[in-house]
Write a structure and sequence with these properties.
This protein is mostly beta strands. The protein has five helices and 27 strands. It binds calcium ion (4 copies).
Length: 494
Amino acid sequence: MTLVLSLMLTFALAGSPTPREVLQGIDQQETLNLELEAHFDQVCSALKAGRHDLSGLVGPGVRFPIDEFVQVPSCSLRALSVGKVVDDTIALRVLWDLDGRDARGARRSVRAESDGEVVREGKGWKLSRLDTSNAHRVERDAPRFVERAAEAGLVLPQVVTPISPAAFLSSGLAIRDVDGDGIADVFVIDRQTLYLYRGKPGLHFAPPVAIARTGGDTILSGVSLGDLDGDGDPDLVLTTWRDRPVRLFRNEHGTFVEAGKVGRGGQHQGTVLSDLDGDGKLDLAVVSYPLGYAIPSSFLNADNGDPPELWLGNGDFTFHQLPLPARVAKHHWSFGGVAADFLHRGGMQLYVFNDYGVKDLYVLDRDGGVSEVSAQYGLNDPGGGMSADLGDVDNDDRVDLYVANMFSKAGTRIANGVGARVPEATRDLVSKFVRGNTLFLGQPDGGYADHAVDLEVHRGLWSFASLLADVDNDSRLEVLIANGFISGKKRKDL
Ligand SMILES: [Ca+2]
Ligand SMILES: [Ca+2]
Ligand SMILES: [Ca+2]
Ligand SMILES: [Ca+2]
């Protein structure tokens, strides 16, 4: 629904055809797509039930490369573009994904985006052709990760009822050795409580201790760790969604004592701790997401959010605000940020990732001024930004940036379906919004170029968080993505 509204708003500016005509075209296509999905789901049900011979159900021109599979517990088949009905036939672009196990129990996956065709059969449709020659295959004897949270003791002490309307804004995780015993400790936010799980030898955690709480209709929204007083141990910064100041906690030999507040409050989503002005003391950037107070002024370029608050640290749990000049401050809907020397000039700059629009790169100039330069460096990245992580993906000693946006099959189908009926620039923008994640590689000229599509790391599904980490110790970074999705009950609501 969000996407349809954004398309309507965008096309309203685009001239002809009228927004109503565009929406009618989308509606017709999506009605047809529901019929196609009914058939696709039948195909998946047959595969999951162990039926490899799909004759009768699909045409002879369809053959999934799953000869080695003995089980197919997971199957997805969806159209990314739906052509016109010509002679009871529709040309399609299909995204398909099958997970299973072979006779040895090894996990096998096969997936691709393929050209295909359906033909009318009775009141429905039948997949008559699918070119699976470009399928990606993955085979693995054992899973890379095994779920051990419960036996390690990383379990929340109680299930807390969600607080509407923004329960999903409450999340937070920070991991560091805070008591100096050489074992990582874990902070977790659970709605209105911040818990600390102290690490013990042998992948075990002590029962959680509540470090901070909030009440009423406020929720905790972000936790960060950094040495605010320069005594060598990490201190704690906690943000609250709904008009409460940022809270600071001093680390005293592994226990945390409330040590100050910053600002008057806002709809904060989190903080970035970094020395932005290069004076050796940690500074604080606080970002906000005003859900519940406003709706985005545009789904493609919202400008009614809140700019980040920049607070320069004094090294003693006090901060003084660096006001953002009106011409610099971007009123975006921000989920968070990361700091790095993006400009290769020997300091830290702040990259803020935003929902409903472009991202921002804030730079503190040597004269004390602030500028926003994301577009100049190729980093503005239109999309529904949810997270970002830093790393040197291509090992060229230049920092790279992986940004989680959102990949939507329905959105891709709609963007493809509107075709020549809307201006190319509009179509490109909408396509970018539904395309998925971005991988910016640092370039020799100092700028950044997006290589997510050619390196095939853009389709992270509906991404909410992303991480670059070398999980197999081969000196090359992997991409890990956490996904989530909230949708209506009716499929046609997208
Ligand atoms: Ca520890
Ligand atoms: Ca400290
Ligand atoms: Ca500083
Ligand atoms: Ca690099």
